[in-house]
Each structure stands twice: as structure tokens, then as C-alpha cells.
TrEMBL record:
GO terms for molecular function: phospholipid transporter activity. Signal peptide: none annotated. This is Putative phospholipid ABC transporter permease protein MlaE. One of its GO terms (cellular component) is ATP-binding cassette (ABC) transporter complex.
Amino acid sequence: MATKPGTGTVLRQRFPRGYARGERLVGAPARGLDSVGHVAWFVVTAIGSIGHALRFYRKEVLRLIAEIGMGTGAMAVIGGTVAIVGFVTLSGGSLIAIQGFSSLGNIGVEAFTGFFAALVNVRIAAPVVAGQALAATVGAGATAELGAMRISEEIDALEVMGIKSISYLVSTRIMAGFIVIIPLYAMAIIMSFLSAQVTTTLFYGQSTGTYEHYFRTFLRPDDVAWSFVQAIIISVIVMLNHCYYGYFASGGPVGVGEAVGRSMRASLIAIVLVVLFASLALYGTDPNFNLTV
């Protein structure tokens, strides 16, 4: 006696595309949870291996610090990451001064351009711009490098030789990014301050005394300190994100390119979210400035 086919079999035969889409939709929560767990395992392993990397791979950390700071090959000719971050923050500070002076001038308070530059540069613009420059230069390069090593089986070869690949390839890059971001971000902050002042005083003719009065009055040292904390957090997240996509890249050269694109999208979102949540936590209830000063 023949057995009647089940409802699932009938639906799969009659509506193959719709049935496949339904299966993907039903399994999406489980796949998402599995992905989160995979990322969490990678993050915990990479951060937990930092001590091992500093103990056994100090030379690799030093090499990566030099590579991240000054770059290699053609990047070294133009100054590497330092030059790129400096140029991008220089442009960002100038744009803040241009928009601030023009917008505040509409209501007759263009003297507050110094206040605007001190507030926006430190709390929003500099962390976002520096993070994006770091992701576009160092992060994308790390994804491509690790992805190329994965598809050519170099990472598997490291494991065969008894080298902890995550410690050697990922933890060292996290430490290098953590160390390099401090002087790099200090330079970025200085460039954003100088560009805003030069634009306001030289191109718009505002007196230097007026600009510096409002700039120094509303520039708070604790804002600068928290800005550095944001930059450090962003650097760690960016390096973890790009190393994750590169370490698990697959599909040949095309897969490496796709991994670079996905990692950049994730980094851009993560950078903005870090600044958003930091602003909510630090200034959500108290903006920490008083225009009557």
C-alpha cells in the first residue's frame, strides 16, 4: 500500500521557491543566534590571547605598530595612516568652521564659532572621522591580508606549526591598534582644532582673540579625555571586526573582496553607534556647558 506524501513534501514540490524562502525565514532566528555566539567566541578568544601575544609575539606587535602608523610600500611614501587621518580630520575641522560660522551668522552670533568648534570636534566629529579613517586604511588592509592568508591556507599552516593563529594574527593587531590610536588621535584632535581656527580667523576674518576666548572657555578637559576613550574603544572594535571577517573569509579572491566590503559596512555602523551611546551616557541628561559663562 503506497504511503501518501506529507504536506511538507507536497508544498516543496509545488512551490519550491516559496518553500525555500519560508525555510530560510523560519531558521533565521537560529542562524542569527549562532552567528552571535560565533562572534562572541572569537572576541573572547582574541582578547583573552592578548597576554599570550605580548609574551611570545612582541616582535610582531612592534612590526604591526610601525606598519599601522606609517604603512608599507606606497602608503609609507605619503606618511601612511598618520597622513590620511590628519588630512581627513583637517577637512572635517574646516567644514565644521564653515558650517558653524555661516549658520551662527544667520542669527548674529558668529562669535560663538569657537564654542561650536570646541564642542562638535571633541564630542562628535573627531572620533567619527578618525574611526572611519582607521577602518578604511588599517581595518580594510587587515581584512584583505588575513583573508588572503585564509584562502591560501597559510593560517592552517600556522596551526600545524604549533602557532596560535588568533593570538599571532588577531591579538597582535588589536594591541597595535590600541597603542597607535593614542598618538594618532592626539594628532587628529590638534589638526581639527587648528583647521577650525585657521578657517574662522583667516578666511572669515574673525579676530583671533574672540575665537580663542570662546574656544578656551567651552573646551573642557574631561570632554577631551572621554573623546580619547571613545577613540580607543572604536579602534578595538574596528580591529576585532575586520580581523573577524578576514580570519573567516572563504570563496577565493571574490570572497575576500566581499569580506572587506562587509567588514567596512559593519565598522561604519559600529563607529556611529559607539559615539551615539557615549553621547547618550555622557551628555544625555547634562550637556556640561553653560552659554552664560
